[in-house]
Amino acid sequence: MKPLAVSMGDPAGIGLELAARVWAERDGDTPPFFFVGDADALERASTRLGLATPALNVVDSADKIAVDGEQLSILSVPLAMEETPGAPDPVNADATIAAIEKGVAAVRAGAASALVTLPIAKAVLHTADFGFPGHTEFLDHLTQDMPWQQARGPVMMLAGPSLKVALATIHTPLALVSKQLTRERIAHVGRIVGEALRRDFGIEAPRIALCGLNPHAGEEGNIGREEIEVIDPAARSLRGEGWQVADARSADALFHDEARKTYDAVIALYHDQGLIPIKTLHFWDAVNVTLGLPIVRTSPDHGTGFDIAGKGVARADSFRAALKLAWEMAQRRARA
Ligand SMILES: NC(=O)C1=CN([C@@H]2O[C@H](COP(=O)(O)OP(=O)(O)OC[C@H]3O[C@@H](n4cnc5c(N)ncnc54)[C@H](O)[C@@H]3O)[C@@H](O)[C@H]2O)C=CC1
Ligand SMILES: NCC(=O)COP(=O)(O)O
């Protein structure tokens, strides 16, 4: 198996120090990876953490990457300006974007088995005309021309030890959510989630739950009609295709311990409906994974952490979990 590619994320955030720490503390359970970003910035992050300077193998093209456990390979993407932890600078936006592009190219070229992205600050990238709400949509764009036999995403899933939650809408303003929820969209997301649970998570007969949109899942149409007109019909059509999908359930009662035992993944209808429960339960060890793409991509569940960048307190658990999940998914796909 080829190593994982790790894109650097916003250099003013905690991504550099997470990569430096995990490399310095690597053990037999750490999947092999190389870093796509600025080598000097990674060294500076190591120094700020008080770690020994890592031995680096800096290359300019993915075919020169060597993974030997002694040297960290860096696929070079130089910054325009030295980073200041906690103070993102749009001048480095192009390099941040280029690191993602090079990471994807490495996977596409067969030099990496999957991509793990470190966090970006979307607002900073928009200053460089980054026309995408996040990685998820950008990665879809970068892989559109790749063949893919199954239902095509992207769908954002956050996966933690006791909860997997996928989103029917991703970076959508709340005021637009209801308009964007159609039967077709929810059914399509349901298929992507079902196929991913089988293919990428090894769950043969996945059980999928669907959140309602309205309080009490609409109370039989008395507090909103989306459940009756959109969500339940989508669930019916998925059941018609053989998927185990229940009708919309009250979202406020879907995430407690007992409820979570009744499904393998739950589809939330908008970003915070799904991310609040998973980040409450699993902030340290959940992984953001993009479903329905021809490449495997994971990420830590948290953002750039500008308030703590450079202070040496950022926890690497979620990044470690993202490496582990990407490696497992890539292995499953390779075996299939
Ligand atoms: N995959 C990605 O690229 C993601 C990027 N973001 C971006 O991150 C930026 C900041 O977003 P926020 O909402 O502030 O979320 P955040 O996750 O960066 O920070 C929220 C809080 O959690 C703490 N925190 C985050 N990661 C931590 C870690 N590993 N160890 C210890 N504490 C940690 C931070 O210090 C902060 O107090 C935004 O620009 C957003 O777009 C947010 C989520 C995912
Ligand atoms: N809140 C998670 C998030 O926004 C991550 O977005 P993406 O960059 O993975 O698309």
From TrEMBL:
Reaction it catalyzes: 4-(phosphooxy)-L-threonine + NAD(+) = 3-amino-2-oxopropyl phosphate + CO2 + NADH
Gene3D superfamilies recorded: Isopropylmalate Dehydrogenase (3.40.718.10)
Cofactor list: Zn(2+); Mg(2+); Co(2+)
GO cellular component, one term: cytoplasm
Coiled coil regions, renumbered to chain: none
Record-listed a divalent metal cation binding positions: H171, H216, H271
Enzyme class: oxidoreductase
InterPro entries (UniProt xref): PdxA (IPR037510), PdxA_fam (IPR005255)
Pathway the protein contributes to: Cofactor biosynthesis; pyridoxine 5'-phosphate biosynthesis; pyridoxine 5'-phosphate from D-erythrose 4-phosphate: step 4/5
Intracellular or extracellular location(s): Cytoplasm
Textual note on the cofactor: Binds 1 divalent metal cation per subunit. Can use ions such as Zn(2+), Mg(2+) or Co(2+).
Enzyme Commission no: 1.1.1.262
GO MF assignments: 4-hydroxythreonine-4-phosphate dehydrogenase activity; cobalt ion binding; magnesium ion binding; NAD binding; zinc ion binding
Binding positions for substrate per the UniProt entry: H135, T136, K279, N288, R297
Homology family: Belongs to the PdxA family.
PANTHER family, A to Z: 4-HYDROXYTHREONINE-4-PHOSPHATE DEHYDROGENASE (PTHR30004), D-THREONATE 4-PHOSPHATE DEHYDROGENASE (PTHR30004:SF6)
Entry function: Catalyzes the NAD(P)-dependent oxidation of 4-(phosphooxy)-L-threonine (HTP) into 2-amino-3-oxo-4-(phosphooxy)butyric acid which spontaneously decarboxylates to form 3-amino-2-oxopropyl phosphate (AHAP).
Oligomer status and interactors: Homodimer.
Protein name (Swiss-Prot/TrEMBL): 4-hydroxythreonine-4-phosphate dehydrogenase
Organism: Terricaulis silvestris
Taxonomic classification: Bacteria, Pseudomonadati, Pseudomonadota, Alphaproteobacteria, Caulobacterales
Gene for this chain: pdxA1
